[in-house]
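Sample log: FMN dependent NADH:quinone oxidoreductase.
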Amino acid sequence: MPTLLVIKASLFGDDGQSSQLANAFTSRWREQYPNGQVLCRDLAADPLPHLTAEAVAGFQAEATERSPTQQASLAMSDTLIAELKQADAVAVALPMYNFTVPSTFKSWMDHVARAGVTFRYTEAGPKGLLETGPLYVFCARGGRYQGTENDTQTRLIEMFFGMLGFAEIHFTYAEGLALGEQAAAEAVGEARERIALLPLSVREGSQ
């Protein structure tokens, strides 16, 4: 039974444009995989704490040496990583805040990037340790940044998820959402049209 993990980072929950695009994709995914399951990690409804030096030390410490706080941080990190490992496809609803990803999503990234667990260091650079399927990213932005030097998100997502082992990444952009009602409606409409054409697949062997 294939599993889709949906990660939502909008401060506005399901009212956010990125969340609505991810929901549209999820509906299409459910039609393709009626026996599949969907896991949702809403980072606005259930925000993660920022990574601390104590938590990092706990990741590296022996089990008997961890403090209760470190044990709790490790358990949370393990849960997030387990969700990724369970997923046969991942969808990320990603708004742009101040030229970058939401801080809640950055906290998620910090808790799943664990050397020796989700990636390892090599002389050629980091190498992913996760068995992954496709990643679908739904970017909602007030201005227009795609293809410009101000699009800091796209390369960050490619680098980060590539480090974990994701080789297939699909981006869908809805831009100019703050440039008037007509521009916003056109951007969302075009994004939904692209969602309808996205190739749907899951991790090999999961069907």
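Observation: The CA atoms of residues 88 and 203 lie 5 Å apart.
Observation: Helices lie at 17-32, 53-60, 68-86, 103-112, 152-164, 181-197.
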